[in-house]
TrEMBL record, chains A, B:
<dbReference type="InterPro" id="IPR000965">
    <property type="entry name" value="GPR_dom"/>
</dbReference>
<feature type="domain" description="Aldehyde dehydrogenase">
    <location>
        <begin position="6"/>
        <end position="297"/>
    </location>
</feature>
<dbReference type="GO" id="GO:0050661">
    <property type="term" value="F:NADP binding"/>
</dbReference>
<comment type="pathway">
    <text>Amino-acid biosynthesis; L-proline biosynthesis; L-glutamate 5-semialdehyde from L-glutamate: step 2/2.</text>
</comment>
<dbReference type="InterPro" id="IPR015590">
    <property type="entry name" value="Aldehyde_DH_dom"/>
</dbReference>
<comment type="similarity">
    <text>Belongs to the gamma-glutamyl phosphate reductase family.</text>
</comment>
<dbReference type="InterPro" id="IPR016161">
    <property type="entry name" value="Ald_DH/histidinol_DH"/>
</dbReference>
<protein>
    <recommendedName>
        <fullName>Gamma-glutamyl phosphate reductase</fullName>
        <ecNumber>1.2.1.41</ecNumber>
    </recommendedName>
</protein>
<keyword id="KW-0028">Amino-acid biosynthesis</keyword>
<dbReference type="InterPro" id="IPR020593">
    <property type="entry name" value="G-glutamylP_reductase_CS"/>
</dbReference>
<comment type="function">
    <text>Catalyzes the NADPH-dependent reduction of L-glutamate 5-phosphate into L-glutamate 5-semialdehyde and phosphate. The product spontaneously undergoes cyclization to form 1-pyrroline-5-carboxylate.</text>
</comment>
<dbReference type="InterPro" id="IPR016163">
    <property type="entry name" value="Ald_DH_C"/>
</dbReference>
<dbReference type="InterPro" id="IPR012134">
    <property type="entry name" value="Glu-5-SA_DH"/>
</dbReference>
<dbReference type="GO" id="GO:0005737">
    <property type="term" value="C:cytoplasm"/>
</dbReference>
<dbReference type="Pfam" id="PF00171">
    <property type="entry name" value="Aldedh"/>
</dbReference>
<keyword id="KW-0963">Cytoplasm</keyword>
<keyword id="KW-0521">NADP</keyword>
Length: 435, 435
């Protein structure tokens, strides 16, 4: 099938394209063999990878030092450098993450449903690997190993497209993983690092129809929309979270306070952090002054509408919210605050500005909660709890490859079963279908 | 998010675009309200639609007569005219299809999984409607009503893009459905027929990101690839089936004969019909002469490789297979036939030429069957039964909106649950997440 994005190919991008397609072909072939690997074999493989990472930590740290030096020289911020940095203990964590994944149940082979049809045909829908999964990501080199672990455990091959700032670190990690693949009798093409210096490699990856079964972009809104716009292979969008907490008239003030503080300040750079607080007008005067003081004391800048500013009064400094604030995923110590007239007004606001990630209500009113959970359309709708719980680990999945904010295939935290597809097995005894 | 396909808009297509986007916006708004409709309400709606279709059959047949006349004048084939033709009894069938769907369980609200987390949070993943579903289809006007019934039952709004040859019939049907929506107190925008005379309306539908949640193309390979290539909204590919039957060395000859005859000749125009027969070399001489005679007698043209031709000998006329035959979904009384050396050779052939729809093995050898069911990667893998069973009705789903040949979200026959997504409901009591 022709590809959408083949204009303006120059020679360099054509070479990149050949690299990507050849990696994808290798991955497809390797994945076909690997699909039937038993859980025993896969778990042993992940354990051997964990051992090798610990044993060869020196190589990894040397490569990482090279990336860090390049980052410092190019003026990378301290926060970025910290995300890039690997230490002995971070390598140990990454290795232990692989052992955790090895300990999780194998999704492959699970019977999702099954029955015997009236004519005696036996029908079973079973999980099988997707095939070749592409991951496009930024920053942290630990994603390289985490993503490889999850895709291998679920029987897939993986094409990794990391950021150029972590090029050496990622190369060192992948080289170790591939050595273990070969030592364990598997094709090294099950794990491939794609060229990261050319932007076009993303395009070639996401247009490799027939070779790549799924691409998951992990990163900021810019990365995700680049992937979605160019892709002709299936994509699962992850992670943009403009999450709201709505505090109802019937909220318990203590619970509201706890939930809002936790949802905003626990970690601000994550997609499940709250970005907007909506307060029922009848709760505004009792709740907002103290809560604003506490938030402000914790370093949060409050971007308020007029009614919220009025309720807060002198309790804390505020800055007037602009129209953009309601649509902004701050990922920082900022919070937009508005006063609303009813649960329905809060839901209307969320419907206009939400990104379908996580939306919370704090209320003791059963009817308000029922209306909110029924009508609000998001991957997770949370009642009287922090938005921070939307997470594969917290949900008991044991791991997470991202949080899907789309509706098809997977919605919310994605772990091992979400990296599989199914096939129907139909067993008969010479059965034919009447005309 | 910008759209991919906005080049070369001329004025007429711009008007079409406005029509499509305005229908999509109306559908989205209507879908938001409709998502919470109870099963009772939805079943009553479908029953009222069925009644109205029967009551107003005259209008439908008049409109259909207009399409038929236009078709005859433009030189449409008898087969095409027959697919387009509605009769009193076909209208009754369509209405009774709606009643069947009304009788099926409502997928919305079903708890897919749920548990209580160690910290006491209650977690439930429940099915909710997708929102707005687009269907692009050809030929038969009954698809208009079938698709509307399934999408409404699963709580969605539907945008229908039928073929221009059925324009009047589809308009009559949709007008009746919309009248019933209004009489039942629902928005008529839950069911909208898009302009069908302009090709560009498909493009505008499949690029309406943020308004349309899913597009399902139903039709031939050309229609499907047009949709997939242009789409920026999620698409589920359906129906291209280059299905194989592999008859193993250890096959029971009678079962093999029954299965092959049924898979090829039951109905040739459907996607689950067999297009290629692969026979183990040790079964070729016993099986092929009689089977070829029977197939040929039923009107099937055999496209054979050299070894198959040799095994068939004088038993039936054959024509040498070209390279294209192995990749052709005939949808006609044609069958490609090859002799292979082993189950593995059959699987290699299927891996190269299959479309991931339905692949069958006929064998009494447990090991060969196990290898085949494990390695063959398709929506359905069938043992000792006809490929014709891959069908929502046959699988006991009560209905079918298409057969997905892709791996994400749904694979194989799609019915009501496949027209939903899920959301996580998280209930706490002031729960916060530790740092």
């Amino acid at each position: 099938m022709p590809e959408k994005s083949q204009t303006n190919l120059d020679e360099s991008t054509d070479a990149v394209r050949q690299d990507v397609l050849s990696a994808a072909r290798g991955a497809r072939e390797a994945a076909e063999q690997f699909a039937a690997a038993t859980r025993e074999t896969k778990d042993a493989l992940l354990a051997a990878m964990a051992d090798a990472l610990s044993r060869r930590a020196g190589e990894i740290l040397d490569a990482n030092e090279f990336d860090l030096t390049a980052g410092r020289e190019s003026g990378m911020s301290e926060a970025m450098l910290d995300r890039l940095k690997l230490t002995e203990s971070r390598v140990t964590e990454v290795a232990s993450g692989l052992r955790t994944v090895a300990g999780l149940p194998d999704p492959v082979g699970e019977t999702v449903r099954g029955n015997v049809l009236p004519n005696g045909l036996e029908l079973r829908q079973v999980r099988v690997p997707l095939g070749v999964v592409g991951i496009v990501y930024e920053g942290r080199p630990n994603v390289t190993v985490d993503a490889a672990g999850l895709t291998l455990k679920s029987g897939n091959a993986v094409l990794l497209r990391g950021s150029s700032s972590a090029a050496r670190s990622n190369a060192a990690l992948v080289s170790i993983l591939r050595d273990v693949l070969v030592e364990s009798g598997f094709s090294p093409e099950l794990v491939t690092l794609l060229p990261c210096t050319e932007r076009s490699s993303v395009r070639h990856l996401v247009t490799a129809r027939g070779l790549v079964d799924l691409v998951i972009p992990r990163g900021g809104a810019g990365l995700i929309s680049t992937v979605v716009e160019q892709a002709t292979v299936p994509v699962i969008e992850t992670g943009v979270g403009n999450c709201h907490v709505y505090v109802d008239r019937a909220a318990d003030t203590d619970k509201a306070r706890q939930v809002v503080i936790n949802a905003k300040t626990r970690r601000v750079s994550v997609c499940n952090a709250a970005e907007t607080l909506l307060v029922h007008r009848e709760a505004a005067e009792t709740l907002l002054p103290d809560l604003a003081r506490e938030l402000s004391g914790a370093g949060v800048t409050l971007h308020t509408d007029e009614r919220a500013a009025e309720a807060i009064g002198d309790a804390a400094p505020v800055t007037p919210a602009t129209r953009e604030d309601w649509d902004t995923e701050y990922l920082s110590m900022d919070l937009a605050v508005a006063v609303v007239d009813s649960p329905e007004a809060a839901m209307d606001h969320i419907s206009r500005h939400g990104t379908g990630h996580t939306e919370a209500i704090v209320s003791e009113d059963v009817s308000a909660v029922r209306r909110f959970t029924t009508r609000v359309n998001a991957a997770a709708v949370v009642v009287n709890a922090s938005t921070a719980f939307t997470d594969g680990g917290q949900f008991g999945m044991g791991a997470e490859i991202g949080i899907s904010t789309q509706k098809l295939h997977a919605r919310g935290p994605m772990a091992l079963p979400e990296l599989t597809t199914t096939k129907w097995l139909v067993w008969g005894d010479g059965h034919t279908r009447p005309r």
